[in-house]
Amino acid sequence: MSESNEKLPHWNMSVPFPSLESPEFAAASADFCRDLDALTDQFDAAHIDKLAKPGGAPVQLFEEAFGAYNQLYESAGTLRAYIVGYTAVDSRNDFAQ
Asked: How far apart are CA 20 and CA 10, in angstroms?
């Protein structure tokens, strides 16, 4: 087997955030946690839970909660994909873990 000094391809992970340790990533993570807490409070205040029977909440309440949920889901997808981009190529990246 021959050794090669050729540099392997490298993913450009700086598109969504400069790095895992960047203030931008930290802010996005903090925003996600804040938004999750706010959505949890919104669900609790409206008595929305998996045991609730359909038809109990007004349509407007549902639309507000569902809109917030969709935004949170999108943010989670971006954060997850970014972190997986690091752990997929370096499973020993302690910060990403």
From this structure: 16
Q: Which amino acid is located at 27 in the chain?
A: A
Confidence (pLDDT) at 9? 66
**Comparing C-alpha atoms, which of 63, 61, 70, 80 is closest to residue 35?**
70
Name the residue with tokens 């804040």: 34
What distance separates the 2 farthest-apart alpha carbons in the chain?
A: 69
User: Whole-angstrom Cα distance, residue 35 to residue 33?
Assistant: 5
Place of tokens 């931008």: 24
- Is the predicted pLDDT of residue 3 greater than 80, yes or no? no
Q: What is the distance between the alpha carbons of residues 83 and 97, in angstroms, rounded to a whole number?
A: 8
Alpha helices in the chain (DSSP H): 23-45, 59-87
Least confident of 21-25, 51-55, 80-84: 51-55
Q: What gap in Å lies between CA 4 and CA 92, rounded to an integer?
A: 24
